[in-house]
Amino acid sequence: MSAPRWLLHLCIFVGLSVCFAAAEARRPNIVLFLVDDLGQRDVGCYGSTFYETPNIDRLAREGARFTAAYAAAPICSPTRASIMSGQWPQRFGISEAIGQPGGMDWARNTKMMPATYSDRLPLETPTLAKALKAAGYATFFAGKWHLGPEGFWPENQGFDVNLGGTEWGHPPTYLSPYGNPRLPDGPVGEHMPDRLANETISFIEKNKDRPFLAYFSFYDVHNPMMTRADLKKKYEEKRERLGLVEKLGREAERDVRLTQEHPVYAGMVEGVDLAIGKVLAKLDELGLSENTLVIFTSDNGGLSTSEGRPTSNFPLRAGKGWLYEGGIREPLIVRWPGVAKPGAVVDTPMCSPDFFPTLLEAAGAKPRPGQTLDGLSLVPLLRGGELPERPLFWHFPHYNNQGGAPAAAVRRGDWKLIEWQEDNRVELFNLARDLSETTDLAAREPRRVGELRAELHAWQKQVGAIYPTPKRELRSRQTERPRRDSPTKSGGEGPVEARRLTTGHERSCAGCTRGEKASIGGGLRVPATGARVARCNLSRGRGR
Q1: pTM of the model
Q2: 76 tagged catalytic
């Protein structure tokens, strides 16, 4: 006797529901740890013997460790834009840490006027959070955002939850009360990385039965140098026990730290590691680790040439703010059970725009029709395969606090070329034989220089790179805009000239302009030198 038709329909419905539920369960959760200003050599599994990072080292044992991972810029905001968009940040005009002076706002005695830059990631950008949210993921952000003023914060760019993400480049303090408009104060003395770890855990617990993206973007280890008293004491004793002392070299006109022995910075690194360990432990406790893709990386190199120069990137040259390897080569660990082989070491170069297509593929999602993605998915590498050889590019048309000057760079294979924009001088290095970039081979390899330079210039034109202006040229044409290549693609953000550009601070203050006259809200002009006046949020450290 045949079954009733309604019963057959019910069986089909139940079967399909089971299939869809199984497919949903196979979509990995995603936890992305981004640490601010952490150098590649600041982690135990990358060679540090002073800083202690057992939880990060555990990730390396259980996942794939990349040896040639790069940030899209030697400073924070452009790299963060590239992660969120999967595009080179030059397409948005974001080439500097948002809040730093640029263009006509520049008052220092330099050969060139640094380029103007955009102070926000456009809202129409198809961000990683928007893409995963459309694919059914719950989305969470905690920590440093630094991609625009209010109205352009994480909750406006695809995140369901935002805890701590504002225009701030770093916090005024790492101990509560924080004074952060998106992070309610905790108990007095509460440590920010621990608090953000607890918030991340709370989100994971609430969303353990559905796929989620948890983007934990540390404010650490950026200035101000501040850690728990017990961690500071631990590393002061360790430094004394090991007999470590500060050793300095020179990078252009700057001292550069060559040893890791700063006790406060070490405590900050361990604070990051403890927070990561806390989140990983919760994934284990909830039985989610086997179906969670975890990424650990940084946004630029360690601070080694200024502002206390708290760490050393040696043997990598220079650090944050420079296009030498110490400024752009980052730690990257990817743990993805069943995909990334535990303990694997990946030497293939990658860059931060690659995260977007990688996570899109992992989630089984597709880019929007016509969406520009400059990165490549790393999934083939994680599975033990290869990627086609390709060039990686950088364009930094600015001076900065760390001593760097306007420059651009390209890496193809083992070869890396840096072009300095003040005088068009070039340097050429073979990174396979000279990781520390000590031997300039430009004079010996003119043909290779020409090829790499042509490739770099073609890319700059394609992405619409903005250039600094020689001051002599600026004086002769005060009314003209700084030169910018016309892009062949804008990634869906509209014409380049229609994007908002900033010369740095929209409102200046005495704390920002240092010796110049300053405009304090409403147009009041006061002498900055010797005067005690209100300072804007940027000069308090919230956008610098």
Answers
A1: 0.86
A2: yes
